[in-house]
Amino acid sequence: MTRYSFWAKVRPAMTLPLDVLAQRAKGDGLLARFGRDLDLALIVGDGDLDWLVEIERGVVARVTRGPLIMPRSDLRMRAASETWARFLEPVPPPGYHDLFAMRRYRRIQIEGDIRLMSAYLFYIKRLFELLRPREAGA
Amino acid sequence: MNAARAQVEPIVGRYLNLELLGRPHRLYVEEAGQGIPLLCLHTAGSDTRQWRGMMNDAELLRDFRVIAFDMPWHGKSSPPAGWQSEAYRLTASDYSAMTLAVADALALDKPVVMGCSIGGRIALVFAIECPERFRAIIGLQSGATIDPYYELTWLHHPSVHGGEASAAYVSGLMAPTSPATERWETLWHYMQGGPGIFKGDLYFYRGADGDIRERLAGIDTKRCPLYLLTGEYDYSVSPQDTQLAADRIAGVKFSVMPRLGHFPMSENPALFLSYLKPVLAEIKGRG
User: What is the pLDDT of residues B145-161, one digit of tens each?
Assistant: First the structure.
């Protein structure tokens, strides 16, 4: 039996710059248009690292870096860090350029409230697009 | 407003009243150009506006009469009387019969037929069942079947805006390099689709009725030339998916379109035309 070590979980490698998401989301017209009345607790998995993104009334209210302790969530989207790295390229290659493209090739795990995801899919896709380098400062 | 700057496009739209599948229908048809008739079939859940780039290309219109119609329930075509008590579900046989009926009603003489996505699938059905009806067949984003990767429930549900959901579901199918204006125009068409129509089209596309893998070997490209073009960013019908179909068809001409996705004619009309024109020139050259 492998002995559990919480030290190993403290700083896993990360690819998605979710720490800047709230800043980049501010004033974004597309989020404002498609995020009407959205309340969402979204867990984003980047390899071994989970983040909790909390949206309140369409606004990115809090972004919490894991490890998370028994968080409540509506939706969970997790992929390998290598997959996110390709997604983040300024012109991502086919199959990595969109959440559903990654879904088709089974590169992303999507689970939770799929009704909510469907109703706000433009908003959710935009959140991830904002993490691309070319969107910085946009 | 500066009237001198206003421009009228060459596209002309009219309504066609005809019987389809034993019921009266009112269909919207538009066309531009003259010469070889080129009948264009739009994708699931959309309408003729997807072909606006082709219908505004002066060079193309010199030799081709480009014609497109909104399928029943789509665009400016009406659903049949009594629709309020029905669920719309497209089938291969209905789709084929309607398209051939429209071609007959317009008295098209051996047109070239070009369809995209579900239109690309039915183009393969035409190649199997009635190649003699056409001068040439062009399938865009054509596959013999599809790998389902999402749940259809939420495309037509009272608690979700079906237009926005449908548009968001297909939004990633376009190349990230396609111009934003054209991509969002393409998505607007989806947002305007009638409730449940995109889902109803997918009944044909994703169901056993539309799976034609075992029928492809019956295509004889000597009876009618068949061209397949697929955008590289499409993951609904990927280039690999079209290749799997092309591998079963002797004499087919298949090419991948770099920097395009699932809606080539609408997401980036100029780039699409650069891939399409050599194909049309070859068809024209055959006489």
Answer: 988 888 899 999 999 99
Q: Is B166 exposed, middle or buried (0-12, 13-18, 19+ CB in 10 A)?
A: buried
User: Chain B residue closest to A126 (CA)?
Assistant: B168
Q: How many domains would you assign to chain B?
A: 1
Task: Report d(CA B169, CA A15) in Å as an integer.
Answer: 25
Burial of B15 (0-12, 13-18, 19+ CB in 10 A): exposed
A-chain residues within 8 Å CB-CB of B150? Answer: 100, 103
Structure token pair of residue B186: 């393409």
- Find the residue in B nearest to A101 (Cα): B235
Burial-class residue B36 by CB neighbours within 10 Å (0-12, 13-18, 19+): buried
Q: Which residue from B135, B141, B110 is spatially nearest to B280, judged by alpha carbons?
A: B135
State the ipTM, two decimals.
0.94
Hey, what domains does chain A have and what are their CATH numbers? 16-78+110-133 (3.30.1050)
∠ at Cα B270 (B62, B181), nearest 5°? 130
How far is Cα B211 from Cα B213, in angstroms, rounded to an integer?
Answer: 6
Cross-chain Cβ contact B232/A125 below 8 Å: no
Predicted TM-score of the model (pTM):
0.94
Task: Tell me the angle at which helices B118-129 and B197-206 cross, rounded to the nearest 10 degrees.
Answer: 40
What whole-number distance in Å separates Cα of residue A123 and Cα of residue A38? 9
Residue B137's domain comprises 3-286
Give residue for tokens 């069942």: B129
